[in-house]
Every structure is written in structure tokens, then in C-alpha cells.
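Chapter summary example.
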Amino acid sequence: MSGPPPQAWLNALLVLVEALQRGLLSLWHALGLTGDSHGQPAWPWARRVAGETLLIDLGLARQLGLTLCALAVAVLAVALALAWRRRGVLLAAGALALVAAPWPSTSLLFVPAAPTSFHASPARFSVDTIALGARVYAQHCASCHGTDGRGEGPLAAGLAVWPPTLAGPLLARRADGELFWHVLAGMRDRRGRPTMPAFRDRLGDHEAWAVIDYMKALSAGSDSAGNWPVPLQLPEMAVRCAGAAPIALSVWRGGQRVRLVAVDGATALPYDDPRFLTVLVTPDGRPPAQVPAFRAGCTAASAQAWQVIAAISGQPLAQLAGTQLLADRAGWLRARGTPGRPWSDADLVCVSGPTTGMPRSPSPAADGLTALLLRMDAEPVRFVKGGFIH
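The structure predicted for these 390 residues follows.
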């Protein structure tokens, strides 16, 4: 009988490790043993558990999982020993569990940490924040990392270390807090030589978080293989439906799927579909002058949405009309539709479950869109930042 697939137990282990570290940080901060850094509790230790290493080294992950189980047994044995008279047997069982545990190598398990390693972005992944990040990136980052994020900017060849590409899994395997730290403090190689300048004197915290959000969007738009290396949430934006007051798009998260459709004056408005909320994205953020019956009538109220959807989909602004993005009920962007082509299984850009990385086979569903919706519901996204990727 085979055990559970690696996706299941590894994801659970990474969630547990993340929760234990965050819980320890909260305890230390509550006791006054650590201060704040950039407005949030500072990680007080020089190292942290390497979730990104556990992701690719299943042997190390198994060792850690078994060791945590042994520690739990030992703690339980001590607790029972305090309540029962037969303490010797219980304490011996706890000690045996610790001795038998396959303690992982600390040099492999821990990696250098920053004070902001466990910081969470106070800026929501919104169209306004991403648009701000695009301006910051163009001014300070594109010369080395390239306009497409592939690390081939005009200054890249003259650097001691070639800039990493943002089109790979780099952003998903690094915690947002550490990316934030490196943006402001810069980076150095093992010999202490600078490989990226510090921007703490040129960027504020809000701008640093914004450029990280834009890099996530750019990473998706730079992908050409049809599978995003970084799962993306549906960008937050204000939506106006049928002349009512604008409301946040996140109101529908958790219950309704969402379809974003880029339309201009020459694009036919899509039909409304009860299976998802359809939101029109226009170049100026204004709703169409006339909406025929049975056509979608909700519009993104921000003019920045056109630019952001273009960045995420990897389409030039002039060719964006007709492009569609489909999000699941939890708010994850899952599929990207091409103008003039019906939906198919090949449009999935965020694949989850045991089929991740495997060739896609045609679905027996009646049509491509139905097949996508069924698969999205059957394969919910599982994502741990710095660890297991959808």
C-alpha cells in the first residue's frame, strides 16, 4: 500500500513549519524580546528553516517530519508523566522517541534570514499598487533585470553576477519579506561583494512592496510555457455594476468565480454567464456607453486595470482587447483566454494537484470552458510562499 503523494504531506509539513516559526516570532515579540522592523515584528535570529530546500529535498523533508513527530511524542510523554504515577515508563518512551528520531542536518535545514523574513505586505495586491510598482521597476530595475524581467537589461552584461530571471520560480521560493529586505538593503555574494545595490535611500516601504507586486505580475506575463511559475491572486480593484456605487472585487472571493475581459470600442461585449462574474476591463476605466441585453455589465472602475491585465497576460497594450483571465472561487487566476480562440485545457496557466507538470490530455466535457471550470473546482490551489507551489 503506497503512502500519500508528496504534494499532500509536504504541503502540510510546510504549513506547519511556517506556523511554528510565525508563532515563535509572535511569542518573542509579545515578551518584548524582539523589536520592530519596518512596522512589523522583526525576526530576531540569523537563520530560519529553509522551506525552499524542503520543497526540492524530499529526504530532508521526511527527516524533519519524523523528527517533529518524535518531539510531539516526547512532549506528550512528559505531560502524561506529570499526571500519572508511572513516570519512568513514560519518560523512557519520550527519550526513546528523541533518540530514534532522524535529526536532519542543521546546515541543510537552516538558511540565513533577515529581520523582515516573515513580514507580510501591508499593500494589497491591487491594480493601483501594481501600477505603482511598474513605474518603480521601470525607473530603478529594468536597466539590469530587463523590461521583461529575464535579467537581460542593458547593464546586465557589465555586472559581476548576471541578474536572476523573474520568469522562473525565484519569486515563489523566496518569502515576500526577504525580497523586500533585498530590495532595500541590496545583495552580496559569498565573498561580501555587492551584486545588487541598496535602494533604501531612494525607495520607501510602500514603493518596495509595490515593486514586488509588479514583479509577480511581470513573472506571469513573461512566461511562454503556459504554466505560471508564481500563482497569482486576482488583483484587487473597484468594480461598478449597472450604475451602482463601486465595490471591491474581493467581495466575490470565496463564493463566485470571476472572469476579466479586456474590451475596447471595437470589441463585442461578452454575454453574461451565471457560472462566474464577468468584469469588463476598458482602456480608460469607464463602462461602455451602451450595454445590450444579456451582455456583461460590470466594469473595472480603475484606468490602471488595463495596464495591469496587459502585464499579467503578457500582451502589448494595443493587442490586449479580447484577452480574458479566469479566476477560481478562492480568487486565484487559473486560465488565460486568447482573443478569437475558444477555451481549451491548454489555457490553464496555474495547474494544481497530481497532474502538475504533466502533459495535459483533452477533457471529455462538452466544451472547453466547462472543462476548465470543472478542473479548477476539482484541483484547488495549494500554495505556501517559499515552499510548495500550487
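To summarize the output: The first strand starts at residue 36 and ends at 37.
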